[in-house]
Design a protein that fits this description.
Number of strands: 15
Shape: globular
Structural class: alpha/beta
CATH architecture of the largest domain: Up-down Bundle
Strand content: 15-25%
Helix content: 40-55%
CATH class of the largest domain: Mainly Alpha
Radius of gyration: 22 Å
Largest sheet: 6 strands, antiparallel
Strand order of the largest sheet: 2-1-4-5-6-7
Number of helices: 12
CATH topology of the largest domain: Glutathione S-transferase Yfyf (Class Pi), Chain A, domain 2
Distance between the termini: 30 Å
């Protein structure tokens, strides 16, 4: 997969931009607050139609303007593809076009695949379980669009069930409303989500372990495992969706009295976590900041390989300020893993990257005040 041309209009600090990247490593260099991260964000948005930095599309519109527009021209498996997104603030309306034809967002997600690394991704290791669940959900939907539909349905059922449980907690036992009507529907969605997550983590763990050993010259071993709120699923064995569904319904029955008393659903995908271990110890507790950051980068590189395995082409790799967080040895290990294989966009500051010998085949751009120029040293 290759991005041939990117056009922006009124997106963040860009009034208008036509950007034509190179096929390999593209370095976006410049001072802070000039638009390097915004450019990466625009590429990512064409993949997920959401921002990694805000849930409000209105915040992406340039100050004082009514809308933004993004257009990406891609080459995927030898075929040209044109993807357009427009957002109108006055109507809070988003329109997506694929090869000039309007497409619903759920159908468009995954057309273009990206993997994004930002400094904030450190919270993937040391943050709350919700951060790791969101990571899994975002990445699985890129290779399995149906997953997003099931997750959306599960979330709606969960809200309804929790509302009934709160009513039950407030009511007398005799007047408590039934929640069983939602359990069967919820179990179907939960089984699909849990099966997809466990399969994804199993594949990701193998790939991440390999990438991590390369980045650390074999000194560290990385292992991922899925931590389920269903006790039966905590074992690292394979379960069919039907078996997971049975375990989920049994767990709901077992916790029914406690759920009614507390007014909340206590088991399910919304309560799960991802364990990240380095040398058999929890990375969020025992890992240094350098180890935590390298483990996140290993996850991202593993995603690149996983998407290639699932989709048959490499995603775009977006690395925001990654070199300032890595020592020279790990920088070169990273470049060795991506060079010649993945179209990559790396943001950074200063002349250090320009002088780096391992980057001489890259294409350099100077980003300044919402504009992109060929780099002149």
């Amino acid at each position: 997969m290759e991005l041939k041309r990117l056009s922006l209009k009124y997106f963040r600090n860009y009034g208008a931009l036509a950007f034509e990247p190179g096929p390999g490593v593209n370095l976006l260099l410049g001072s802070n607050a000039q638009g390097k991260t915004n450019l990466l964000e625009a590429i990512y948005y064409l993949s997920t139609f959401s921002s990694p930095r805000t849930h409000m599309d209105s915040e992406l519109v340039q100050w004082g303007e009514p809308s933004f527009y993004l257009q990406g021209s891609f080459q995927i498996k030898g075929n040209p593809l044109l993807l357009e997104v427009g957002y109108d603030s006055s109507q809070a309306r988003k329109e997506i076009r694929l090869n000039r034809k309007i497409l619903q967002q759920a159908a468009a997600v995954g057309t273009v695949n990206t993997v994004l690394f930002t400094p904030e991704d450190l919270y993937l290791v040391k943050g709350y379980p919700q951060v790791r669940r969101q990571f899994l959900d975002r990445e699985i939907v890129q290779v399995n669009p149906r997953y997003g539909q099931c997750l959306s349905r599960y979330t709606k059922i969960l809200r309804q069930r929790n509302r009934l449980l709160r009513d039950a907690a407030a009511a007398s036992r005799r007047a408590a409303p039934p929640v069983d009507v939602w359990d069967l529907q919820m179990a179907d969605m939960a089984a699909y989500i849990l099966f997809a997550r466990k399969e994804y983590v199993k594949k990701l763990s193998l790939l991440a372990r390999l990438q991590h050993r390369k980045l650390t010259a074999g000194r560290e071993d990385l292992h991922l495992s899925y931590a389920s709120s269903l006790e039966k699923l905590q074992e690292e064995v394979e379960f069919s969706r039907d078996i997971i569904r049975e375990h989920f319904l049994a767990a709901l029955k077992e916790r029914e009295a406690e759920e009614r008393r507390r007014g909340v659903t206590l088991v399910g995908p919304h309560r799960d976590d991802l364990n990240i271990c380095i040398n058999q110890r929890q990375a969020r507790t025992y890992g240094s900041q350098g180890q935590q950051r390298t483990s996140v980068l290993s996850l991202k590189l593993a995603q690149v390989e996983l998407i290639f395995g699932e989709r048959g082409n490499y995603p775009l790799l977006l690395l925001d300020d990654v070199f300032s967080e890595l020592d020279r040895e790990r920088q070169r290990s990273l470049l060795g893993l991506i060079r010649g294989r993945v179209q990559t966009f790396i943001s950074g500051t200063g002349d250090a990257l320009v002088k780096e010998k391992t980057l001489q085949e890259g294409t350099f751009y100077h980003i300044s005040e919402g504009r992109a120029y060929p780099w002149k040293s």
